[in-house]
Amino acid sequence: MMKDTIIYELTTDEFNDAVVKNNYIENSTEQYIGFVDKSVTDKTEAGIILDDYEDAWDDGFDVIVFADCAPDDDSTASLAAMSGMKIFGMVIRRNLLKETGRFNIVLEGSQNREFLMRATDKGHVFFITCSADDAVFPESGAMAREIAYIICSRLARWGHEGNLDTVFADTVAGIPDKNVILGFNKTVDDMLSDSGICTAISADTAPFLVIIGGDTCYGVLRQFGYSIAKALADIGEAVYTSEDADAAMMSDITFKGVIGFQTQAFTNPGFDRIKGRRLQFWFDDPAFFESMFTNVRQGDIILCQDGNYTDYINKIYGADAVWFPPAGNYSGPYDDEGRTLDIVFVGTYYKPEFTPDEFISGARSYDTVEQNEVYKAVTADPALTVEDAVVSLYGRDRLPELMKTMFYVRKNIVDYYRHQAVETVLSAGYKINVYGDSWKNFRSDYSDNLIIHQKINVAEASQIYRKARIGLNFMTWHKAGMTERVADIMLGGAVCISDTTTYLRENFQKDEIVLFDIGRPEQLVTAINQLLKDDTLRHKIAQAGYERAVHEHTWHNRAVSLLQLIKEKKD
Asked: Where a domain ends, among 324, 355, 378?
């Protein structure tokens, strides 16, 4: 059998079950994936046939179909021809699924023909006729519904081409079962009188549209877009990106989901021409981005990396927000060899505006009493969020009003504690590898221990983590969140040390990640000392973290979860 091919042997019922086939697609990685009805044939026999027709792939075909009553040498079978076939096997080039989507689960019991019609729309299908006495048609009612949907969903196209009557007549003539014909006629009438039936069916295999962002933040948001698009395509979903979809196409399709990453496009009224549920990934404190939530439509979902941000958006802006953190990119199997970097931190440095000591001495302060009181409260207890401090001091009613004045207060707090954590590690004699020119602004008596490398992108960061023993993560005051950096460090096989958050405490075990209190950087030094002195401990935590991240925190995992979320919201 061809390389990079997997064929699943299914019962007749499983072969006609979209959920079963889609699950196999979702959980496999081979470039060619096939299904055969094992009551008719098996994967060995199918493999032999495929070897005989291996040139078909080189000739540009995307699907090879095994069927009884298939026309000889027919590579463009019509609906009429497919209606009379007993299909018992097919092998699909995985790349095609990015264009077609998977099998339609709404068409229960019979959907192979409908998938093949989509395949002929987007690619090339090769039919191999095989005499098979054991091959059977799907249940008549299910098959009737499938064929009726194929015709009704293409009425406009075939009508425009002037061949609708011919297609209709030839299809009916090609159906060998009178019960299917009776069911077909009734179902066509039902679908024509209620357009919602076809709409509900087509929604299951509608494509996603992913909005690809700019190069801000080292291209992180841009990479997120590429990552979720690839992950959705890998599990068999049809996907377009804003880079490969033209405006006419985008306004003509109803998408299963339109995905953005803090994109401002969703705030533009003109974007309303693009139809489909919007799924906006959100990473920063929403209190400072009120304008981004003024055009959230009914049915849109905000996917927040931090549980506190989820609550804020739900309560203050009245939008539908769910806790849904970003993920990391798989970079290969775990390997502890070649780790030449003790400690790395891939993040930006900003010089603090002033320190708590300067504030206490009266040398520096903010413009308003509220800003000063909030700064004092959070620096006294770094476990607090800025929102917590505002509510505690001034009540929930003033939260939206006062948060508009807290951007630079919060930023200064973040910058100070990041500086303090790094300086504490350097003062203990450890060297930290950092990346980008922003670190040239770092000032400390211990700056000689800071090794500044050139700026790197997301893909390069993944390779850095494969060379590191320890990867540091400092949250931007995301007290209930998780960043992609955590996942990428783990997927790179390094030990992740991060300041603690609700999400990290609840979703990782102590032997998978090392957490410390951001207000007590000496805990960070203690952890580093233990890990660099004890290779067995370091290896144990790194491998456990890697396994957790591979199974729960890749973009593949998020793509699967996103489909489940959409299903739950629809139900």
From this structure: 324
Alpha helices (H) along 267-397: 307-312, 356-361, 369-380, 386-394
In whole angstroms, what is the distance from residue 222 CA to residue 215 CA? Answer: 6
List pLDDT tens digits, range 376-390. 999 999 999 999 999
- Assess if residue 212 is contained within a domain: no
- Report whether pLDDT(74) > 60: no
Fill in the DSSP letter of residue 208: E
**pLDDT value of residue 532:** 98
Distance CA 457, CA 330 (A): 15
Asked if 315 and 350 sit in the same domain, the reply is: no
Asked if pLDDT for residue 530 goes beyond 60, the answer is yes
How many CA atoms are closer than 13 Å to the CA of 208, on its beta-carbon side? 31
Query: Is the same domain home to 434 and 513?
Result: yes
Question: Which pTM value belongs to this model?
Answer: 0.93
Structural domain span for residue 473:
341-556
Cβ pair 496, 511 in contact under 8 A: no
Q: What is the CATH number of the domain that holds 136?
A: 3.90.550
Task: Please give the Cα distance from 31 to 459 (Å, whole number).
Answer: 23
Which region holds residue 559: left if phi is over 0, alpha if psi is between -120 and 50, else beta? alpha
Token digits of residue 326: 């970003």
Q: Indicate the range of 130-134, 513-517, 562-566 predicted with least confidence.
A: 130-134
